[in-house]
Amino acid sequence: MIKVYWPDKLARDIVGRKKYNYLDKEIPKIKKFVLKSSTSISGVPHIGNASDVIRHDALFRALNGMGKPTRLLWVAEDMDALRKVPAGIPPEFRNYLGMPVADIPWVDDKSYSTHFSDLFIESFEDYGVKVECKSTAKAYRSGEFTKGIKTIMKNLDLIKEIWNKSRETPLPANWNPWKPVCENCGKIMTTAVKGFDESGVSYKCEDFKFKEYGKEAYTKLSGCGYEGESKFSDGDGKLLWRVEWGMEWATWGVCFEAAGKEHFMPSSSFWTAGEVCERVFGWPEPHPSENPLQPYGYMTVSGEKMSASKGNVVATWDWPKFAPPQILRLIFLENPRRTKDFSYLKIPQYVDEYDRLQRVYFGEEKIDNERERENLKRLYELIEVEIPEKMPVQIPFSSAAAVSQIYNPKESPEKALNLARRVCGIRKKLSEADKKMILEKRLIVARNWVETYAPQNYGIAIQERVPAEIKRSFSEKQKAALRILCQELETKEWSEAGLENRIYALRDEVGISSKDLFQSIYLALIGEKQGIKAAALICAIGKDKVCGVLKQI
RNA sequence: GGGCCUGUAGCUCAGCUAGGUAGAGCAUCUGGCUUUUAACCAGGCGGUCGGGGGUUCGAUUCCCUCCAGGCCCGCCA
Q1: How many domains does chain A have?
Q2: Same domain, A143 and A55
Q3: Where residue A533 sits, what CATH number does that domain have?
Q4: Range(s) of the domain holding residue A203
Q5: What's the ipTM?
Q6: Residue A482 and residue A542 in one domain
Q7: What is the distance in angstroms measured between the alpha-carbon CA of A64 and the sugar C1' of B77?
Q8: What is the DSSP string of A409-463?
Q9: In sequence order, what are the residues at sequence separation of 6 or more whose Cβ sits closer than 8 angstroms to the Cβ of residue A417?
């Protein structure tokens, strides 16, 4: 029996679901399975935001794999107000607090939210994610939600009954879930509804106090005092969250949407929205309850939640510059319910894991246990951006990092490629496609990683002074070889290839083993028993520095 | 104070929803590699499965409890 990877299992659960959860009836046959992922655009969309999209995409692939017609929606929650100016955004944006992010000007014709959501959407391609993009602001204003809003307004008593289940104080008699945008000042947080009928509400723009994320004190937002009316059919406003969520599901026919754990607390939004979805709209709430994916945990960086307002974020479009996008998919698809603490130093290890999965997939690495093998192959399919036709050439990330420091792949691509080939013992001739892949997907990426996130001189740190115990450990032959090497470096100009030949010849002249010779070179220069291509290393460090070290022997 | 999730080798994880004397990769270590010495090959080290109870012939797997970590607990989305 082959164990089914969680997206496949979840996909089967979704397809096999029979009944409503609040209504005693059967779910009609579903023609198209709609998955929804959404992101609130409070600032720079970061890799933590991508987790929701990537996990839904895995499920999307699983359903497609079952031959089920499926749509994957991604929704920008851009009718939501800006509640805090995130780190990295000019402080003047304080003036826009309380306005829908879709209405805040950026540069050119872009709004604050389209600026960020466009960048986010463009970056989806790097991760192999294809989605249909939606925006709540557009949906409200284009009339896409008008029918849903009307249904809500016809069923206010029922909605109050549902919502009151999770409240201590019941909603007041004149309560209405519509939140208008102030026609005068453009804020949505400051509008207080004063009355309503079946076509709209009347409101006054009043001062509003709220807590900014991470702050104890209340922030006061000034209302402009304007009194006006907001018609539901104009869509210049939004429904309160719990109601909005349920209405979205019904409007778009959503079968599944995972969300962060805060939505799944008892009496939290998922449950209210679900009941609204079924009892008000008659659409089955998206596959709820315990499942392998939800509620999912967030990504933390050194123990802190990654969030736009804290500023400890990596933008989704920056990640591929220093790590393969498949790695991010891997991190999010493994153990999805667990909170992930991330560190840049773990990247080489994750890349090794990815490479291994690729080898297993192409049968280059044998896994005896059939179940495990199938599992790993499936995981590879789900994390790969585009599955290659045949097994690609692999360069371990740590080797790539070392090579990229000796020859900067951006400045001398041919030299870096050559060295990488020799370091990794690749004999076959590389095709142009191989070269491009190794250069762009590995060497340049590794170099960026080293420059930005890795310890200085990752792997090729030359030691200024040779420690006494290392000197003492050298045999007479080793010392002799190093002295000769030093002398010849000083008196002659060497090419890398020439130097390599000379080192091997030296081995025979002095009469020591390759191991002893190479070990002494590496121990003297970098304090390690092994190292990368001695000749290349010496050339990269420069003969002056090398001789400075070797003279100490 | 309450709720939910998580806790398996140094690291990342599998196994746990049909309970049967602990698994993988990476790292580390050892050996091999006479122009592939950070590649590659062979091998070793490494965990009383967070602690304690219980059910059972037998529990990492089921139940209870404690501990630790994460997240959440607003007429915010």
Answers
A1: 4
A2: yes
A3: 1.10.10.350
A4: 178-239
A5: 0.87
A6: yes
A7: 32
A8: TTT-HHHHHHHHHHHTT--SPPPHHHHHHIIIIIIHHHHHHHHHTSPTTTT----
A9: A409, A430, A435, A438, A439, A443
- pTM: predicted TM-score of the whole model, two decimal places: 0.89
Rounded CA–C1' distance between A109 and B2, in angstroms: 48
Please tell me whether residues A143 and A19 are part of one structural domain: yes
Same domain for A202 and A86: no
* Nearest protein residue to nucleotide B26, judged by CA and C1' positions: A349
Q: Token digits for A295?
A: 């509620």
Which one of A389, A424, A454 terminates a domain? A454
> Are A76 and A197 members of one domain?
no
Residues A259 and A114 in one domain: yes
Does one domain contain both A403 and A546?
A: no
pLDDT tens sequence for chain A (553 residues): 234 577 888 888 888 888 888 889 999 999 999 999 988 888 788 888 888 899 899 999 999 999 999 999 999 999 999 988 887 888 899 899 999 999 999 988 899 999 999 999 999 999 999 999 999 999 999 999 999 999 999 999 999 988 888 777 788 888 999 999 999 999 999 999 999 999 999 999 999 887 665 555 677 889 999 999 999 999 999 999 889 999 999 999 999 887 655 565 556 677 788 889 999 999 998 875 445 444 455 666 655 666 666 666 788 999 999 999 999 999 888 877 777 777 788 888 899 999 999 999 998 888 877 778 888 888 999 999 999 998 899 999 989 988 998 889 999 999 899 899 888 888 888 889 899 999 999 999 999 998 887 765 565 667 778 888 888 888 888 899 999 999 999 888 888 888 988 998 888 888 888 888 998 898 888 877 888 888 888 888 888 888 988 888 8
* Residue A1 CA distance to nucleotide B19 C1' (Å): 18
The integer distance in angstroms from the CA atom of A478 to the C1' atom of B43 is 28
Residue nearest to nucleotide B73 (CA to C1'): A265
Which residues 6+ apart lie within 8 Å of A475 measured at CB?
Answer: A512, A516
Burial class (CB in 10 A: 0-12, 13-18, 19+), A343: exposed
